[in-house]
TrEMBL record:
<dbReference type="Pfam" id="PF00106">
    <property type="entry name" value="adh_short"/>
</dbReference>
<keyword id="KW-0560">Oxidoreductase</keyword>
<dbReference type="GO" id="GO:0032787">
    <property type="term" value="P:monocarboxylic acid metabolic process"/>
</dbReference>
<dbReference type="InterPro" id="IPR002347">
    <property type="entry name" value="SDR_fam"/>
</dbReference>
<comment type="similarity">
    <text>Belongs to the short-chain dehydrogenases/reductases (SDR) family.</text>
</comment>
<protein>
    <submittedName>
        <fullName>3-hydroxybutyrate dehydrogenase</fullName>
        <ecNumber>1.1.1.30</ecNumber>
    </submittedName>
</protein>
<dbReference type="InterPro" id="IPR036291">
    <property type="entry name" value="NAD(P)-bd_dom_sf"/>
</dbReference>
<dbReference type="InterPro" id="IPR050259">
    <property type="entry name" value="SDR"/>
</dbReference>
<dbReference type="GO" id="GO:0003858">
    <property type="term" value="F:3-hydroxybutyrate dehydrogenase activity"/>
</dbReference>
<dbReference type="InterPro" id="IPR011294">
    <property type="entry name" value="3-OHbutyrate_DH"/>
</dbReference>
<dbReference type="InterPro" id="IPR020904">
    <property type="entry name" value="Sc_DH/Rdtase_CS"/>
</dbReference>
Length: 259
């Protein structure tokens, strides 16, 4: 049987990179992506390919632009022959009170964290329908289920991702294509690292206090989740064992949303 191909958006760092490694280790061809086109991006693809003995390509596409989102999927299919698993992971964050929230930051967060998943999903579904099998896995967030102050755009986008996830699941339910979301709590990645100075400013606290009392306040385990744990959840949702899991979300949040 031909190898399946997985496309992971925003995957030269953090959770996307962890998911790309996990999918490559599970035997998928993998397309990794970001908006840059540096030698190190292509080297990263070679590194993952060599480590897991599978096909890996880096394709540049800016997830804030609809035409580039769709082109990513078509280029992935042209490279490996199919798009079987789509992981919508690209995301950015910005923290400010809603009445001071810059409009351009709102627009960028909605475009990258939500609208990109609409475009990539719309472009990938014809390939999945043709193959009679597919997996759409959206990296949402505990903030798809709960709110925190100062994150209006991010919380709105992630709630939107869960709505998109459920709607797509219903539309393709009889085609052996599933659509699910993963809702991580805090995972210590560059995105989270970059929030710490803003949170320190917003809460007037030092780094350690912000981590303990603000970031991990709701995470009952008081531990960050890891990119490997999110990657393993992606691989599970892509597996045949998860064929009857669709239109739902799996929280990997150390008990945050149990509260
Ligand atoms: P990260 O900053 O390490 O990675 C984000 C990735 O998105 C990078 O590869 C970056 O290059 C890419 N990206 C950003 N803008 C892009 C664009 N315009 N086009 C293409 N790619 C773009 O962050 P992360 O923590 O790994 O976050 C990944 C996803 O997980 C995001 O959707 C984020 O909201 C979600 N998430 C993260 C956490 C966490 O605690 N880290 C928790 C819940 C959800």
């Amino acid at each position: 049987m031909a190898k399946k191909t997985a496309v992971v958006t925003g995957s030269n760092s953090g959770i996307g990179l962890g998911s790309a490694h996990a999918l490559a280790a599970a035997g998928y061809n993998v397309v990794i992506n970001s908006f840059t086109d540096r030698p190190e991006d292509h080297d990263l693809a070679k590194e993952i390919a060599a480590k897991h003995s599978t096909g890996v390509a880096y394709i540049k596409a800016d997830m804030s632009k609809g035409d580039e989102c769709r082109a990513l999927i078509d280029q992935a299919a042209a490279t490996f022959g199919s798009v079987d698993v789509l992981v919508n992971n690209a995301g950015i964050q910005f923290v400010a009170p809603v009445d001071e929230f810059p409009t351009e930051k709102w627009d960028a967060i909605i475009a990258i964290n939500l609208t990109s998943a609409f475009h990539t999903t719309a472009a990938a579904l014809p390939y999945m329908k043709k193959a009679g099998w597919g997996r759409i896995i959206n990296i949402a967030s505990a903030h798809g289920l709960r709110a925190s102050p100062f994150k209006s755009a991010y919380v709105a986008a992630k709630h939107g991702v869960l709505g998109l996830t459920k709607t797509v699941a219903l539309e393709v339910a009889e085609k052996h294509i599933t659509s699910n979301a993963i809702c991580p709590g805090y995972v210590l990645t560059p995105l989270v690292e970059a929030q710490i100075p803003d949170q320190m400013k917003a809460h007037n606290m030092d780094r350690e206090t912000v981590i303990r009392e603000v970031m991990l306040d709701k995470q009952a385990t008081k531990e960050f989740a890891t990119v490997d744990q999110i990657g393993a959840t992606v691989v599970f949702l892509a597996s045949d064992a998860a064929a009857q899991i669709t239109g739902t979300s799996i929280s990997v949040d150390g008990g945050w949303t149990a509260q």
